[in-house]
């Protein structure tokens, strides 16, 4: 398995309108802010977590700006255990992670 170096792009994702509707139905979270196309926080965090190469043992996320449906988000590893999320040339989130260490 390839090791990701600091500054590397971990990947990209986009949440569709259909994804947002499906999450709304599953979660029963009817907060009207999501009717404006703002992605659910846990939905966003799940998309980010899927980009790591190994299972996570620790994961924090700080929301800096809202992410909207159909925006392409890019996740960058910026340190050994830190990452940032960028959408449309704006940093929208940041956090820390720790992956399972295989022996």
Description:
The protein has helices at residues 17-27, 41-49, and strands spanning 9-14, 56-63, 72-79, 82-87, 90-99. With 103 residues, it is of the alpha+beta class. Strands 1-3-4-5-2 form a five-stranded antiparallel beta sheet, with helices on one face. A hairpin with a 2-residue loop joins strand 3 and strand 4 (82-87). It is globular and about 40 Å long. It starts with 8 loop residues before the first strand and ends with a strand.
Reconstruct the topology from this structure.
Layout: E1 9-14, H1 17-27, H2 41-49, E2 56-63, E3 72-79, E4 82-87, E5 90-99
Antiparallel strand pairs: 1-3, 2-5, 3-4, 4-5
Strand content: 35-45%
Stretches where pLDDT is under 50 for at least 5 consecutive residues are: 1-5
The best one-word shape is globular
Listing every helix as H and every strand as E from the N terminus to the C terminus, the arrangement reads EHHEEEE
């Amino acid at each position: 398995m390839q090791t990701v170096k600091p500054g590397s792009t971990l990947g990209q994702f986009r949440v569709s309108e259909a994804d947002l509707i499906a999450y709304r139905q599953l979660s029963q979270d009817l907060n009207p802010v999501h009717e404006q196309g703002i992605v659910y926080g846990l939905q966003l965090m799940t998309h980010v977590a899927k980009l790591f190469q190994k299972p996570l043992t620790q994961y924090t996320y700080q929301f800096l700006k809202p992410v909207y449906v159909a925006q392409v988000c890019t996740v960058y590893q910026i340190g050994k255990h830190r990452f940032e999320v960028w959408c449309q040339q704006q940093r929208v989130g940041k956090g820390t992670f720790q992956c399972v260490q295989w022996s």
